[in-house]
Amino acid sequence: MDRVEEWERRSERALTAAAFVFLVAYAVPIVWPRTGGTVAVVCGALVAVTWAAFCVDYVARPALSRDRRSFARTHLFDLAVILLPMLRPLRLLQLITLLNVLNRTGVYGLRGRVVTYATGGTVLLILCGALAITDAERGHPDAVIGGFGDGLWWAMATLTTVGYGDTYPVTVTGRIVASLLMIAGIALLGVVTATLASWLVDRVSDVSEAEQAATRSQVDALATEIRELRAELAVRSPDERAGPPLG
Amino acid sequence: MDRVEEWERRSERALTAAAFVFLVAYAVPIVWPRTGGTVAVVCGALVAVTWAAFCVDYVARPALSRDRRSFARTHLFDLAVILLPMLRPLRLLQLITLLNVLNRTGVYGLRGRVVTYATGGTVLLILCGALAITDAERGHPDAVIGGFGDGLWWAMATLTTVGYGDTYPVTVTGRIVASLLMIAGIALLGVVTATLASWLVDRVSDVSEAEQAATRSQVDALATEIRELRAELAVRSPDERAGPPLG
Amino acid sequence: MDRVEEWERRSERALTAAAFVFLVAYAVPIVWPRTGGTVAVVCGALVAVTWAAFCVDYVARPALSRDRRSFARTHLFDLAVILLPMLRPLRLLQLITLLNVLNRTGVYGLRGRVVTYATGGTVLLILCGALAITDAERGHPDAVIGGFGDGLWWAMATLTTVGYGDTYPVTVTGRIVASLLMIAGIALLGVVTATLASWLVDRVSDVSEAEQAATRSQVDALATEIRELRAELAVRSPDERAGPPLG
Amino acid sequence: MDRVEEWERRSERALTAAAFVFLVAYAVPIVWPRTGGTVAVVCGALVAVTWAAFCVDYVARPALSRDRRSFARTHLFDLAVILLPMLRPLRLLQLITLLNVLNRTGVYGLRGRVVTYATGGTVLLILCGALAITDAERGHPDAVIGGFGDGLWWAMATLTTVGYGDTYPVTVTGRIVASLLMIAGIALLGVVTATLASWLVDRVSDVSEAEQAATRSQVDALATEIRELRAELAVRSPDERAGPPLG
What we know:
By secondary structure, chain A is mainly alpha-helical. Chain A has 9 helices and no strands.
């Protein structure tokens, strides 16, 4: 199994870099649609190359692994990330890889990690949602989302479940992107509330924890009492205790 | 009572199949409104047959039961499911039966079951909400929801409480369907948040659980101390202990 | 103090009835705006009479009480309920009295009472919100809420924070009513989630409760051990124990 | 370090007053846009003076501190509050200082303080959001938010995530203000729910707390048992105990 681990350790930085390059190469023609043909060609090439890198990684890992069947079973999500790019805006799901960067922030504690991932995921979601919706809506005659700025604004209003309705998707791809963002919005609300609730419950229960500490000190007092009893018995009959070894 | 249980065990699969057939037969004329007259007639017949199957089940169970009065009292909800279909789009409430399929997924633990039911219920709600709203709105001159695609999009935006306002019901039946979906949306938000919060509280409190374990180990130490005291007393006076049985 | 309690016990049913009559008399001219002049006059009279009843109750209680100052201080909310009716749609705040009916439902347990009050309060809020918004908006040239049906639909969409935007208030009074309903919506979301979370935390923690029970049984074992030690000591030296009273 | 503390104690009231003056001087030309030129000049001067006061405070504190480096590192937020005013409507972030007033309300307990800060912060957010959005949108040809009243209404609908869509920002500054308010809305929802959940969990767990008390009383019983054992041993052998001091 260590050949897979070695591959993963070596390829991790390369894949994170590839995901970052993919994000930029995908974003440039969407954010500045009037960039010249050369830029568009370069960006297209970079998107293709980074996608190829992810494919190589997906094929290499089971090839290096001894237990290929369980790999295929436990890495279905990776396969989805590779194959989904067929639908252009959903290609951005590949960027989940970027969240691994957060593993290096050195934040400890479950709640700290939840907050870090939620914040990182939210920023990534808004960015990718804005890119995907702009890509999906642009060109449609009835579209109300005209550029990346509108896309960002729409992503914000959707993720927070405000939904003014001044901007909304009209294409099928746009509505699928919107649905994913809405579900993420519900999850985001849940994570924010749950983390706050867990923190509050934990802090408030510090008082009752002090009561539990009292119980522990009671047991300590009990132990002292028994130890004193033993000491008294030892003092009371030193001859008796000395007796048996002599006899 | 076991006659009722036997009936329920035997009829469970048939009723789940009936609910599934009902869903399909109800959905087909709504999703493809231009299907020929034959398809519409077949679907109408299937809807009627499956409804009849649910009626038979509702009548058969108290007939087989010894305690008919308590049956009527505890199965008011089943009666509502049977009688509500008078209002066409609300007939879909019958599909709650389909959630029983989730009982066979073999998910254990309270939180696992809550997640499974919430996910299954959400998918079913969006599907049924979309069918019901399309059925209710279609034909109304001011309707903005024109087909099943619009219905699905509207159900998503309503259940997640985003509510863009690009699609909204204008008929009374549509607004009742929408109100049910809004209430479900609030409940969904609550379930997502509560499950996350419960998981976080549980994971974070693992630390204080270790403190409780410390208390238990204290009691263990105390028990050892007392056992040693007994052993010492026994060693100290073997003659005294041997004495009473002799005398 | 018991004269106040006697007054409250005697007047409770009358005041609940008055609040109910107030709701109906207030609602009729709003729901059916084209009712004849006689009905409007009767309803107006009933609204005035019930308001007078609440005023009498507010004046009677401190008059019967020995400690008038603390009464004024602790019943500021009651005073607000009496005086607020100056603003017509806010008069409905008087209906909080109706929630006292829920005290008689015989639901025990904190969570049960929270659920009962939240459900009752939500129904009352939607009803009163719809009446208040219809009353406030009707007659305004730009109003999009034309009748009680629109009002109910708007109240639903606002309280659940969906907010399609097909109906929205345009008058200042309407926007104040809307703001109150939005705040209630946030509180409702909170209550639903909190109750679910509390229930889940409670059910899941049943397992760790079993662990606490184990600790208690450990202490029981310890107590048995000590009791046996005492018994042994008593058996070992019956003569010594009998000795002191004889000597 | 005490020179910094002395400065902070002395300047606290002055800075709170400055923040309040800033809020009023900033608000007046926005709420009443047709006020004469003199009022506008006075208000502009007051905004500049209060801003200077905050700058002086920010420069004075590290100058008085011994440990200047750690000051710069731990007061980055203060720097942001000072420098952000470049963007006009975001200047209102300076008003966070006003929340310190809440420290003097004498509310004890973690949950009480959370509720106080959430309520105070919400009122301040709605006020500042309304001022900022009116300031940002006014003058734009497509603006739908025409005055402070519209701004307040929009802030309410945004913070509660209702988002009707009858009013929405169209400028970039307005959309940034809106995004901040949406994030605050999610946090507000989280705080309300978390506080309610923590309160419910705490109240419901009072029952299991009584069970813990039972454990403590068990330990008390155990301690009594051991104390009685010691007393018995002392009574049983008074001569033995008296012996050692004599010998």
